Known about the structure:
Elements: E1 4-12, H1 16-27, E2 33-35, E3 49-50, E4 60-61, H2 62-75, E5 79-81, E6 85-89, E7 95-99, E8 104-112, E9 116-118, E10 134-135, H3 138-141, E11 149-153, H4 157-166, E12 172-176, H5 186-194, E13 198-201, E14 204-212, E15 216-224, E16 230-234, E17 237-240, E18 244-246, E19 277-279, H6 291-319
Parallel strand pairs: 1-2, 1-8, 2-5, 8-19, 10-17, 11-12, 11-17, 12-13
Antiparallel strand pairs: 3-4, 6-7, 7-8, 9-18, 14-15, 15-16
Helix pairs in contact: 1-2, 1-6, 4-5
Amino acid sequence: MATTHKTRMLIIGSGPAGLSAAIYGARAGMEPIVVQGLQPGGQLTITTDVENYPGFRDVIQGPWLMQEMQAQAEHVGTRMMWDTVLEVSMDGSPFRAIGDSGDIYEGDVLVIATGAQAKWLGAPGEQEFSGKGVSACATCDGFFYRGKKVVVIGGGNTAVEEALYLTNHSPDVTLIHRRDSLRAEKILQDRLFAHPNVKVLWNAKVDSFVGETGKGLTGVKVIDTVTGAESVVETDGAFVAIGHAPATELFKGKLELDENGYIIVEPGTPKTAIPGVFACGDVMDHVYRQAVTAAGTGCMAALDSERFLADLDFKATQAVPA
Length: 322
């Protein structure tokens, strides 16, 4: 039989943003419920070495970091629910979510932390060498390729920005693009073409990622889209930069989304257009997309939730006849 779970603070998503919101929310006495979703822990659960999360002098493992965040959230009073939200109602507080289990979750405030997923090519070897030479985040993993040869795959702003960032670590960066012109903004293209450590491989479609089991990636096989000729670009690291897809399907027609599907929030805050509904982490951030920035916006969502509830409670007391 379906159960209704009620809380002051309902959080959908359990990555760094959702769990940080839960930690702050629990400490403020909101007794949050976190509905974990299809990928409990978010993208960090499929990330191996993490070297840029503050507080750890040595490399840590992504899954371990998320286990610790969850344990901390539970320790201070968060309830974790192994369920996936299929439907949400945001007509007003309390907000309601229906899970795949049939259970109903109601919260006086709603925090959306459903995240985003990197888009992948789907080419052979891509998943096999993920974390072993293939990555979708230069700012996360570029440091591991200091002094090594790398390639970036894509032709938009993300790809050009990733390529330029990687020049901080690599003296040999190749941008692989399947067309003969880039989609990126002109100012970014000008910077790219002017950089001595970057070259562009035009009209090249990635066919597969090649390497050795146990040793990692050694190259990227490409096909010339004009001549059909095949070749292998030798490289130590390949960064797939063809964009991200925010997990906002649930909220289409209910919240304002930008042209790429990210939730639009009030600048500098996690506030959506609906009072009491907050969005944090990669579901609203298409610029930084880091675990630490996601955690920061999760904290902001919890603090704003606390203020919203305090105002709600005050108005309720004022409405009671003397």
